[in-house]
Amino acid sequence: MRRAIAEAEVGDAVLGDDPTAAALERYAAELLGKEAALFFPSGIMANTAALLVLGRPGTEAVIEAGGHILNYEEGAGAAWGGIQLRAVHTPDGLLRPDDVADAIRPPSPYLPQTSLVCLENTHNGAGGRVMPLPQLKAVVAAARERGVAVHLDGARLPNASVASGVPMAEYAAPVDTVMVAVSKGLGAPVGSLLAGSAEAMQRAWRIRRRLGGGMRQAGMLAAAALYGLRNHLPLLEHDHRRARDLASRAARIEGLSVAVPETNIVMIELADPRLQAAEMLGALERSGVRMVQFGARRLRAVTHLDVDDAGIARAGDALEQAVRELLP
Ligand SMILES: Cc1ncc(COP(=O)(O)O)c(C=O)c1O
């Protein structure tokens, strides 16, 4: 990837003549089965552009309550687009058609109207859960029946695809816009792609520029993204296997409780009330292992390209050591 970056042919992507950025956008559109795609500096900017393309000021976007767009994107849809997010609580992070049907406002002069539904696959907050394709199709159908557009935050759609064996384009086919990150499991330094119809991407192009996301010699970053998309997709399976390995090591430690991960995110519950998240993180850090707090009594560990089998063993040992220190 470093070599691809160094050797990338560049131009000025804002003027439309950076050949590597153009190649990436064509490749991503094809991979996602959409007419066009755009390279963004971040997933948040790409999600925000989708909200601004599909939504209207003063309307609502329906989203699962643990969704990234709702919880971790600085209220971008509200700040830049006057779009209000309507949270729907689910037991597992996965919206169902009835949830969407109930949350979409009926036509009424007294209620805000719904412009779009936001889906997330895999669902980060739900521990990398995959929304199965039939469920995704049924949810989109419930939105469409009510004239409502759908955006898919597929920051980790490559993981959903590898875990389920369903090509990314099949997940993307029913939705209006889809975002895929190259800076997560695919290992590129920067960027996300937003794909959709040519008309939607024309509008997204202006929004990207307005948000300051028009990048000039973008080819160097695009080369990394292309390299990740072309070469690293099959490697995600190893991240998933390593996540299951870490989960089973953690599950054997008394005081912790862990669900079997579907993809590369391991959620570790501090089941023993004497275990405190901040103290656990401190103890792990002293062993050179980093996790993040995700909720009052939950830690999140993510496997990726730079974590090998030995790293997983070290993380398992560090968890054991941390619990031993804190539960004398
Ligand atoms: C599901 C999801 N969507 C969007 C993003 C935002 O991506 P970025 O950090 O590139 O802005 C993230 C980042 O963690 C994410 O997990």
Overview of this protein structure:
The chain has a 7-stranded mixed beta sheet, with helices on both faces. It has a 4-stranded antiparallel beta sheet with strand order 8-9-11-10. It has 2 domains: 2-231, Aspartate Aminotransferase, domain 2 (3-Layer(aba) Sandwich), CATH 3.40.640; 235-326, Alpha-Beta Complex (Aspartate Aminotransferase, domain 1), CATH 3.90.1150. The protein is 44% helix and 16% strand. It is of the alpha/beta class. Helix 2 runs parallel beside helix 11 and helix 12 packs parallel to helix 14 (309-326). It is globular.
Question: Mind describing the biggest β-sheet?
Answer: 7 strands, mixed
Total beta strand runs: 11
Helix content: 40-55%
β-sheet strand percentage: 15-25%
CATH architecture of the largest domain: 3-Layer(aba) Sandwich
Low-confidence stretches: none
Please give the order of strands in the largest beta sheet.
Answer: 1-7-6-5-4-2-3
The overall pLDDT average reads 97
**Number of helical elements:** 14
End-to-end distance, in Å? Answer: 46 Å
Hetero ligands:
pyridoxal-5'-phosphate
CATH homologous superfamily of the largest domain, by name?
Answer: Type I PLP-dependent aspartate aminotransferase-like (Major domain)
Helix-strand pattern: HHEHEHHEHEHEHHEEHHHEEHEEH
Q: Output the radius of gyration.
A: 20 Å
Name the shape in a single word.
globular
Instruction: Count structural domains.
Output: 2
Please state the oligomeric state of the protein chains shown: single chain
Class inferred from helices and paired strands: alpha/beta
**Which fold does the CATH topology of the largest domain refer to?**
Aspartate Aminotransferase, domain 2
Q: Given this structure, which CATH class of the largest domain is correct?
A: Alpha Beta
